[in-house]
């Protein structure tokens, strides 16, 4: 065996011969998910990756990852992966391309940007990106180019605004109890997230608590999804009514003596005002709004009221409504009324963004940011590209785009406007992508991008507590380039490569970022693989005070001027109907309430085998999801003469689509759920679900209310 070790071979029992060693690489899942799972990746002797699995020694990932990432080799070696730069030859979107060199493609992009700036000023160029990779270097370097060139700014509103704002309005900080404490809970309330499908590690720790402690798992959501099926107590609420449930839970807490008055006297701003306000928010009141029974509400109120080790795991889904910030704040307030923050395995957690304290000023070029440059709303790209004056901040047109890490022709709301904008003859579009997405299909120049195992990057995990290194494990195809390469090459051509932060490698960026943040450098992180940034118990549980100046939790949020991670810049100000947000936790009908013309409420929930528009290109994911469908309640289907598999039409003032019906009791009457962000082309008429979603700004700081749509439903042909 010593000879085998010296020769670099390992013993293979099946063949009884020596074979080349398979190495294990350590990296991080790069996708837009709070878990940021630590991964172990088999690297085969031929330089290709094999099995992908969760790192068992990472205390949050705990060896468990989702199935779609476990089969990542299918995506990495997909035959349709982009491999060479392409220039559009024919009409936009016609699919007529010619291959070009990297030099020619980058020259053409730079030339188009210079022409756009000469004609309309620097704000005519809009670098547009998001979270297709959560790697700090590959995602955020585009901001450095944007600041250096004074291009239009990017407000990333599509995902987190309502949830983060509602949480921080209460706590004053975007952090909370260690999410691993779920395993030490006696009751885990999973509110507004289908964790089985989208955050599997939440279930890892919750089910451990059930197995080891007999903990109860409560799930609150709008339909009977895979997470609901794991619940000991499942509550299906009408979309947009979560705050009403939260208010009723707090009403019962005050009524039945579960409220921790001593705790609130020390840690909260106005418990007496809250109690008086909630006097009329009875379970009967909430039942009429939420569709729950009084018994269901009373049962949950009693469970959480008598179980001090109750951990509220608050997701994003229920905040993707026009009253989403208020809903998050109300749900969060339950933990404060009950005094749960005092106990290990208890409190409320949403995101750990504040604990990492990464100094990205050099990486993002914030030192030369001009605050007078306009900021354009990611969610309103359709309005921006079709010349809406308010969306353009009453400035000139956008005539050139550089797009990385996102697919707005599929994921953005108001898809008909988005398509209309992208098909403008006077718009230049450069897309850096891994596949020919629907956005790449309407570009002038398409550049092939690396995937996460093919480059170096650093990650932070919103849903847990680690900063993690994702080193390059395998060589990319010779003709494929990183996001950083594209930004650096454009900077050279556009005359800003001498600005601070340019001309650095990924490794140098990571090293400098870490050291600027008070951490050890790249080599130390490479050796340790991750840094656990979780604060100690007192800080995590706010036992020395919440994040507001007076240390008090805010039952009375300052929606207009309060703290928020996603607050728009001063030259934009607050967005949406801020004055309509409640002074104390409450249900507000800012949602698109169903009416006689639009009797249904539609939510566009995530699918288990897709992640936004990613993985919709892989064969296994598509086979497992089947086809685009909308869930229709059995009673509604019978009334409308809709049978399983029928083609139906769904519509509202934004447009209409045709889609197959899935008749089921998983949704309540009057509620429709379309799971999965399928490509538009996968739908019957080439138009997908985001034709029906709106881009109007959600109070107080903008955002897209993807799960908040009033619609009509008809059987096709009627």
UniProtKB/TrEMBL annotation:
InterPro entries: Asp_de-COase-like_dom_sf, MoPterin_dinucl-bd_dom, Mopterin_OxRdtase, Mopterin_OxRdtase_4Fe-4S_dom, Prok_Mopterin_Oxidored, YoaE_C. It comes from the Bacteria. GO terms for molecular function: iron-sulfur cluster binding; metal ion binding; molybdopterin cofactor binding; oxidoreductase activity. It comes from Rhizobium daejeonense. Residues 22-80 form the 4Fe-4S Mo/W bis-MGD-type domain. Signal peptide: none annotated. CDD domains: MopB_3 (cd02766), MopB_CT_3 (cd02786). Belongs to the prokaryotic molybdopterin-containing oxidoreductase family. This is Molybdopterin oxidoreductase family protein. Gene3D superfamilies: 2.40.40.20, 3.40.50.740, ADC-like domains, Dimethylsulfoxide Reductase, domain 2, Formate dehydrogenase/DMSO reductase. Keywords: Iron, Iron-sulfur, Metal-binding. Pfam families: Molybdop_Fe4S4 (PF04879), Molybdopterin (PF00384), Molydop_binding (PF01568).
């Amino acid at each position: 065996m010593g000879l085998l070790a010296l020769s670099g071979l390992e013993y293979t029992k099946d063949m009884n011969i020596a074979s080349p060693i398979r190495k294990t690489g350590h990296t991080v899942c790069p996708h837009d998910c709070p878990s940021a799972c630590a991964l172990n990746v088999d690297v085969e002797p031929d330089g290709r990756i094999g099995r992908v699995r969760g790192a068992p020694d990472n205390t949050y990932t705990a060896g468990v990852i989702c199935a779609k990432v476990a089969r990542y080799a299918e995506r990495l070696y997909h035959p349709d992966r982009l491999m060479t730069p392409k220039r559009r030859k024919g009409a936009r979107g016609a699919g007529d391309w010619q291959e070009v060199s990297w030099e020619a493609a980058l020259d053409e992009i730079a030339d188009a940007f210079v022409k756009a700036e000469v004609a309309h000023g620097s704000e005519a160029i809009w670098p547009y990106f998001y979270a297709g990779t959560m790697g700090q270097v590959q995602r955020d370097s585009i901001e450095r180019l944007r600041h250096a060139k004074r291009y239009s700014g990017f407000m990333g509103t599509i995902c987190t605004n309502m949830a983060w704002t509602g949480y921080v309005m209460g706590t004053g900080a975007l952090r909370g109890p260690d999410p691993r404490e779920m395993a030490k809970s006696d009751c885990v309330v999973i509110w507004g997230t289908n964790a089985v499908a989208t955050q599997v590690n939440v279930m890892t720790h919750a089910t451990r608590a059930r197995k080891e402690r007999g903990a109860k798992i409560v799930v609150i959501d709008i339909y009977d999804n895979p997470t609901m099926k794991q619940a000991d107590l499942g509550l299906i609420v009408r979309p947009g009514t979560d705050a009403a449930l939260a208010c009723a839970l707090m009403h019962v807490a005050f009524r039945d003596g579960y409220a921790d008055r001593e705790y609130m006297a020390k840690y909260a701003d106005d418990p007496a005002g809250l109690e008086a306000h909630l006097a009329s928010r009875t379970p009967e009141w909430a039942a009429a709004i939420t569709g729950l029974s009084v018994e269901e509400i009373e049962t949950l109120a009693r469970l959480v009221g008598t179980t001090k080790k109750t951990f509220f795991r608050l997701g994003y889904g229920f905040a993707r409504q026009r009253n989403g910030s208020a809903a998050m704040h109300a749900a969060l307030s339950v933990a404060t009324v009950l005094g749960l923050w005092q106990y290990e395995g208890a409190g409320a957690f949403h995101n750990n963004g504040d604990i990492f304290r990464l100094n990205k000023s050099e990486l993002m070029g914030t030192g030369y940011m001009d605050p007078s440059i306009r900021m354009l709303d990611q969610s309103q790209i359709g309005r921006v590209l079709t010349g809406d004056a308010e969306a353009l901040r009453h400035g000139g047109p956008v005539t050139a785009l550089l797009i990385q890490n996102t697919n707005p022709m599929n994921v953005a709301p108001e898809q008909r406007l988005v398509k209309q904008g992208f098909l403008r003859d006077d718009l230049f579009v450069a897309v850096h992508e891994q596949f020919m997405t629907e956005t790449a299909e309407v570009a002038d120049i398409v550049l092939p991008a690396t995937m996460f195992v093919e480059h170096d990057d650093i990650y932070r995990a919103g849903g847990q507590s680690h900063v993690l290194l994702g080193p390059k494990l395998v060589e990319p195809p010779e003709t494929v380039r990183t996001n950083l390469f594209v930004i650096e090459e454009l900077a050279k051509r556009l005359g800003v490569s001498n600005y601070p932060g340019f001309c650095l490698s990924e490794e140098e960026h990571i090293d400098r970022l870490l050291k600027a943040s008070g951490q050890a450098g790249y080599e130390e992180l490479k050796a340790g693989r991750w840094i656990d940034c979780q604060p100690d118990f007192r800080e995590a549980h706010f036992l020395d005070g919440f994040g507001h100046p007076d240390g008090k939790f805010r039952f009375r949020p300052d929606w207009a001027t309060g703290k928020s991670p996603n607050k728009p810049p001063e030259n934009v100000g607050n967005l949406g109907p801020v004055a309509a947000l409640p002074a104390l936790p409450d249900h507000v009908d800012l949602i698109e309430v169903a009416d006689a013309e639009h009797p249904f409420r539609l939510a566009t929930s995530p699918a288990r085998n897709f992640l936004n528009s990613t993985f919709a290109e892989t064969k296994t994911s598509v086979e497992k999801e089947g086809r685009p469908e909308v869930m229709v309640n059995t009673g509604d289907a019978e009334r409308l003469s809709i049978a399983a598999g029928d083609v139906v039409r769904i519509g509202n003032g934004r447009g209409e689509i045709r889609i197959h019906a899935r008749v089921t009791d998983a949704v309540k009457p009057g509620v429709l759920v379309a799971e999965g962000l399928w490509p538009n082309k996968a739908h019957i008429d080439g138009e997908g679900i985001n034709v029906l979603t709106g881009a109007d700004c959600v109070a107080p700081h903008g955002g897209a209310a993807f799960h908040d749509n009033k619609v009509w439903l008809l059987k096709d042909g009627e």
